[in-house]
Structure formats: structure tokens, C-alpha cells
Amino acid sequence: MFGYVTASLSELSEEDRRRYGAVYCGICRRISRQHSQLARLGLRYDMAFLALLHMSLYEPAESGGDRACMLHPIRPKPWLDNEAIRYAADMNVALAYYKCLDDWHDDRKASAWAMAKALRRRMAPLQERYSRQCQAIRESIQTLSALEKEDCREPDRCANAFGRLMAQLLVWKEDLWSPRLEQVGFYLGRFIYLADAICDYEEDKKEGRYNPLPPDDPQLWEEYLVMAMGRCTWEYEKLPLVRDKQILDNILYSGVWVSLRARNAKEENK
User: Fold this and answer.
1) Which of 27, 60, 237, 239 could form a cystine bridge with 83, CB 3.0-4.6 A?
2) d(Cα 184, Cα 206) in Å, to the nearest integer?
3) Whole-prediction pTM value?
4) Residue 225 lies in a domain
5) CA-CA distance, 84 to 171, in Å (whole number)?
6) Element containing residue 66 per DSSP (H, E)
7) CA distances from 157 to 114, 231, 261 (A)
8) Continuous H helices in the chain
9) Is residue 196 part of a domain?
10) By C-alpha distance, which of 160, 164, 114 is closest to 137?
11) C-alpha distances in angstroms, 114 versus 43, 58, 134, 137, 209?
């Protein structure tokens, strides 16, 4: 369901592209160090947005360098590390774990069970340290699973469930910025869910899979996306962001739409 909250690289400066990539590599590196090499398989660029948002808001001290790794053994890649990147790494692992459990319970996917089993022993400290976030992830995924089983035809109920998940992920420190971050996350979550449903609609229909969208005018659902992202950016602009704001602006005002168009084109070609 992720893969939409990414940057439009062609519109970033070389310096910003390097920093964006360094944040992503930093999250990947931190997942490997804190959890396991296997846990890196579920990493998406969406987590770079999460880290950059907190880096811009809280400005934590950074370290970094250039280094080759298992995935890039020949050419060294720049990486960054800080508290926000570590938080994004932990949230990526928590999301992967609960999603794998859900896939196992619903579809009995052997690969999902194997991944959940591999991540299970990593979850105890995360559940203790981030009980609020883990509870929100677990409850939202359970709600979405229940709505799918009852063949819910109210997209807002599904989108709101995913919005509540993202609202809690964006709240890191539970401080004066928490209400604003919750709103950004809620509407961003709605956008992600609806975008995914729109892109998958034709294939879901063909394969007989669940999709909450009724067969209405596709233009109507695109307007829903515009409204969701409009509310998201309205709340986002109220945050005192300076550093990396040009990258964050790129993601929310351009990157999400470029990703959506690319995914739509891919589905149409299929």
C-alpha cells in the first residue's frame, strides 16, 4: 500500500537528490544494524519522508559518511544517521511485521509467515518503546481486514482506518506539534489508501479481489485525492519547517502525483 510518498527526482537539485538518497540509505543501514538484513526487504522510500519531516521539525544532530554495503558493494553510497532516521527504521519494521501477520491470517501466505517469524523477536522492544504506534498499526490493519471481509462499499471508512494509522506514525515525540502532525498523517493516510484503491481498481475487478471503490466516474475519485492531499498540505504548511523543506515540498506537491501517474501507467500497460 506504500510507494506513493516519494520525491520527483528530476525536479530536485543534485544536492537535494544526494541528501534524499542519504536519508534512505541511512534508514536501510539502521534497519540492518538494529534488526536484521532480512528486515531491509520491506523498506520503501515513503520512510524517507517520515524521517525528513521529523528532521526538519526537530533538527536532531546528524552523523554520516560514504560506504559500500551488501546491496551496493562496488560504489559507496552516502548515508546519514540521527534519531529521526532510527525512528523511521523502527516504524518500517513494525509495519512490515503486522502486515505479514495479517497476510498470514487472511491468505495463509507462507512467505508472510516466514517473514513475521523472522521479525517476531525484534518486536518486543519496539512494542514496549512504541506501544501507541504499534497499537495503532495493529488496530488499523485489523479494521481494514474486517471491512474487506464484510465487503464494505464505503471507501471513507477504509481510508479513515489507514489515516488513523498514519496519524500515529507521524507523531513521534508527543509534544505541542502532535495535533498538527496527526492531521498531516491522517489526510496523508487517506490519500495513500485511495490512491492505491484507484490504481488497483481494474485489476482487482478482473481478479475478483476486494476494492471498496464503487464503479463511478474515475474523475470523482481523483477529486477525492486532491481534497485529501489539499487538507494534508494545509496542515503541513502550519509546521515551522526550514531545513529540507524543499525536499518535503517536492514530495507532497509533486512526487505523490508523479508516483500516482507512473503507477497508473504501469497498471494500464499490464
Assistant:
1) 60
2) 34
3) 0.91
4) yes
5) 11
6) strand 63-67
7) 31, 17, 25
8) 14-34, 46-58, 83-107, 110-129, 131-149, 155-170, 178-207, 218-236, 245-250, 256-269
9) yes
10) 164
11) 17, 37, 20, 20, 24
Domain containing 61 — which CATH number? 1.10.600.10
> What residue has cell string 523502527?
90
| Cβ pair 80, 63 in contact under 8 A | yes
Q: Which amino acid is at 155?
A: P
The answer to whether residue 1 is domain-embedded is: no
Maximum C-alpha span of the chain: 51
Asked whether residue 35 is assigned to any structural domain, the reply reads yes
What 3-state DSSP class applies to 62?
Answer: coil
Please tell me the total count of domains within the chain. 1
Structural domain including 34 reads: 9-269
- Of the candidates 70, 77, 7, the one whose C-alpha atom is nearest the C-alpha of residue 39 is 70
Q: Which residues contact 81 (CB under 8 A, 6 or more apart)?
A: 26, 29, 30, 62, 63, 64
